[in-house]
Structure formats: C-alpha cells, structure tokens
Fold this sequence. Notes:
Number of helices: 3
Number of strands: 2
Radius of gyration: 17 Å
Strand content: 5-15%
Strand order of the largest sheet: 1-2
Shape: elongated
Amino acid sequence: MKDRRAPEAFGLAALAVALVATRAGTIAQWNHAAVGCVVIGVGVSYTAYSEWMNTVLRASWTYSALMPTIRIAGVELGLSPLLQWVVVPPLALWLARRPHRRPEIT
C-alpha cells in the first residue's frame, strides 16, 4: 500500500520551499511564475523519489494495470501523481491571484 501520511503537507512544504527560494515577500510581491515552477520542481522531484523508493527499493506496492506510467531514467513512474503536480499548483496560484468580486449588497 502506498504511503498516505498527510499528502497535503507535501504541497505546503513545496510552497514554503518555493516562497523561500524566490524570496517571495508578501503575496502582492510574489513572482507567481517562479513560485509555480519551483513548486512543480519540488513536487515532481519528491513524487519521483517517493515512487521509486516504494516501487523499486522497498517493493511495498505496484502500479495497477490501469495506471498510465512513464519511464524516466529507467524508473517507471505513475503519470497521474506527476500530472497532479504539473496541473494543481499552477491552477491554485492562478486562482489565488485573480481579482475577487465582492458580492453586491442591496
């Protein structure tokens, strides 16, 4: 079985690393593209390491035949976990950056 200990903590850690690495300052000062790239890099790196550790080194679980996989540097990685890092963080940063409409009070 795959390690499921607080996966949201990895996203938060990736964001924290990105904010420190880009010297982000306040949210208004963020370079969202740079923050997004660092988050993706950290997330994909951790996911690749974790999946290699669990499928190759520990052999604690295997992919289902239904899981699309890709082979990178001789290691088979699940496509879905990798795509989650490529799609979700940039989408979240884009949504956070959009101007918010305040509801009209009548």
